Every structure is written in structure tokens, then in C-alpha cells.
């Protein structure tokens, strides 16, 4: 399992067979809403926590064209770059993928393109099937809750809600032992904002099977192990924040479940989320770890904050609604790059936790 943290893209690990993972029901999905704008922002939001009326400082036209040219060259020679020059892909993902090529880059990075090539017409075949009636009803109840202030999902007549229903239904048929879980919906909706429906489906399949593998098994054992790993890494990177969580009796799953299961889609500002996903699709789950470590460390780095927020509920409130400046694009990106933690740290701590779990399991059998 330490392969999850190696310096390779999860798309390099994509198999040509259909995925086989299990997902059980988890958290409820809802969106914070605010005043309705007369027009959408540059990301398509009319309101809500993701709405922004602030223009982004653009790169120069020459910079944009240069980056687009580099990405188009890489995408035209994708297999060669992935096998021989992955570090260059990672470097360019960390700089930020140009908006014009981001959809195609995400499709390739995720491994969705490989799956679609291997399984043509499967998505259409799945759409023609009826599906489990109970799961269908669950999807229908949830589909309107995903980014309801975005132009694609404003009402059930918009293409977004219809495509979201189709994608989630198709996935539940593809993986009947997985079925449907509420935490899948924001990821699926997020992908549909950037990719055509069939491409979004296969990117979603790959993300569920590779990036978030085993997170949704009964008991969420992998997520529980990663919660232990998160605390071990936090102790390395932000010992004061780690001690404060222990003193306040805050368990990591109390705040990180939503961050990890939904891959930050319900947590970060939109510009930040796009940049984080550029890296997440290239480097895997360790990016979500790093973002989480930065959020917790930055939130609890001040003695004044720790002193005035000693109770469990106060600490959770801080972490579940991080300050805007903490989840701002440049702050997050700069700090995850500066984070004093290596791939080897992930692997060492992961192995140590696995040994602890095996030891505990052996003791339980005695």
C-alpha cells in the first residue's frame, strides 16, 4: 500500500480491466448559499460559498501561449512523457495547467483516457440499463444538492443535473457491490464542469478505483488508517497543532473525512481547488494529505488562537470553516511545496502504522 505515495502518477498504475471497489453510504452533501447574483462569476457560480467577484490577476499572453504550447506537445506525446519524463509533467502541473488545456490534461492524468480507449461504448450501454431502483431514488434525492448555485446545476432542467444522474447511475451499475454513496456526487459534479459526460465518467471511475481506493469499504478502514497517518505527519510538520488536537480530544476523522472523501471539492476556494486538482491528478492522495496538513497547521499555528479555542467544538469549528486567507490559492500552493515532508516520510509512517495495526490484530486474537 505504500505505493500510493511513490513518485508516480496514479494514471501510470491504471489497469485495463474495469474497477472493482466498494463504497458505503457516508456523509450528507449540502452547499452553503448566499445572495443570488444577476450573472455568473468566471467559474459559473451565481452565489454560494464558491462565488467570487474578484478578477484573477492573469499571466501575460506570452506566458499563457508558451505554457499552452508545452502542454499540447506533452499531450501529443503522452505515453513517452509518462514513461520517461514524469518529473516534467509533475513540474508543469505544480505551476498550474492552462485553462484551455486543463480538461484534456485532467482526462489524461486521471487515467480516464486509457479506460475509455479500452472500453468503448460501455458508458452508453450502462445508460441503457435500468439500475437498482433504491439506488436510483437515492441519486435523485441528492442530485440537486451538488453546487446548486452553479449554472450547470441550478435546476433539474439544466444539463448538469441530468448528466450527474446518468454518471452516478452508470457507476452504480458498473460496480454493483459499490453502488452509490453521497460522497461520490460532488466529485462527479466537479468533473462534469470540466469534461464531456463520457470522459467525466471514466475519469470518475479511475479516481474512485486508484486515487481514493478502499476509502468507501464498510467501516472505512483505509480512511481510518490514513487518519492515523495524518496525525503522525502533523506531529512532524506542526507539533504545536498536533498537541492542541490531542489536548482538545479532537479526532482527525471529525474534520478530515469530508476533505478526503470528497477530495477537497467542498472545502477550498475554486481557484485553489483547480490548482490542487492539477497536482492531485498527477501525484495522488499525498496532495490531499499535504493540503490538509497546511490547513490544520496554519489554523492552529498561533498561540492566541490555541489559547482562545481550547474546547473540542471550538477547534472543530475553526477547522471545518478555515479562514479565507488560509485556503487562498497562492497560500495553499506555496505552503504545500514548502512543507518539510518527503515521500519517504509518508512511506515510513505508513509502514509503522501498518505494523501497529497488525500487532493489535494479533493481540486481539490471543
From TrEMBL:
GO terms for molecular function: GTPase activator activity; small GTPase binding. The keyword Cell cycle does not apply. SMART domains: TBC. Residues 7-24 have a biased composition (Low complexity). One of its GO terms (cellular component) is plasma membrane. InterPro entries: Rab-GAP-TBC_dom (IPR000195), Rab-GAP_TBC_sf (IPR035969), Rab_GAP_TBC_domain (IPR050302). Keywords: GTPase activation. Residues 96-284 form the Rab-GAP TBC domain. Residues 1-24 are annotated as: Disordered. This is Rab-GAP TBC domain-containing protein.
Amino acid at each position: 500500500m505504500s505505493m500510493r505515495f511513490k513518485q508516480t502518477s496514479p494514471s501510470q498504475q491504471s489497469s485495463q480491466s474495469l474497477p472493482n471497489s466498494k463504497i458505503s453510504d457516508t456523509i450528507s452533501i449540502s452547499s452553503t448559499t448566499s445572495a443570488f447574483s444577476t450573472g455568473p462569476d468566471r467559474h459559473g457560480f451565481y452565489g454560494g460559498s464558491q462565488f467570487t467577484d474578484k478578477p484573477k490577476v492573469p499571466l501575460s499572453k506570452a506566458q499563457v501561449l508558451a505554457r499552452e504550447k508545452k502542454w499540447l506537445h506533452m499531450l501529443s506525446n503522452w505515453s513517452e512523457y509518462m514513461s520517461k519524463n514524469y518529473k516534467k509533467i509533475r513540474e508543469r502541473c505544480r505551476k498550474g495547467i492552462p485553462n484551455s488545456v486543463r480538461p484534456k490534461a485532467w482526462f489524461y492524468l486521471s487515467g480516464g483516457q486509457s479506460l475509455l480507449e479500452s472500453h468503448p461504448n460501455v458508458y452508453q450501454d450502462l445508460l441503457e440499463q435500468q439500475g437498482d431502483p433504491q439506488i436510483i431514488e437515492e441519486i435523485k434525492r441528492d442530485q440537486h444538492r451538488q453546487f446548486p448555485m452553479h449554472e450547470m446545476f441550478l435546476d433539474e432542467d439544466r444539463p448538469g443535473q441530468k448528466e450527474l444522474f446518468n454518471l452516478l447511475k452508470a457507476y452504480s451499475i458498473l460496480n454493483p457491490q459499490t453502488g452509490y454513496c453521497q460522497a461520490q456526487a460532488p466529485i462527479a459534479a466537479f468533473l462534469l464542469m470540466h469534461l464531456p459526460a463520457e470522459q467525466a465518467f471514466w475519469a470518475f471511475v479511475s479516481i474512485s478505483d486508484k486515487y481514493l481506493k478502499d476509502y468507501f469499504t464498510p467501516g472505512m478502514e483505509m480512511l481510518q488508517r490514513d487518519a492515523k497517518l495524518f496525525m503522525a505527519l502533523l506531529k512532524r510538520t506542526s507539533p504545536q497543532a498536533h498537541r492542541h488536537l490531542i489536548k482538545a480530544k479532537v479526532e482527525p476523522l471529525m474534520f478530515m473525512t469530508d476533505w478526503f472523501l470528497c477530495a477537497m471539492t467542498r472545502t477550498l476556494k475554486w481557484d485553489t481547488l483547480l490548482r490542487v486538482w492539477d497536482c492531485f491528478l498527477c501525484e495522488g492522495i499525498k496532495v490531499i494529505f499535504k493540503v490538509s496538513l497546511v490547513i490544520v497547521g496554519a489554523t492552529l499555528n498561533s498561540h492566541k488562537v490555541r489559547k482562545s479555542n481550547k474546547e473540542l467544538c471550538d477547534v472543530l469549528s475553526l477547522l471545518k470553516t478555515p479562514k479565507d486567507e488560509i485556503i487562498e490559492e497562492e497560500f495553499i500552493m506555496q505552503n504545500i511545496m514548502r512543507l518539510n515532508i518527503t515521500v519517504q516520510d509518508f512511506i515510513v509512517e505508513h509502514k509503522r502504522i501498518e505494523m501497529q495495526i497488525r500487532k493489535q490484530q494479533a493481540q486481539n486474537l490471543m
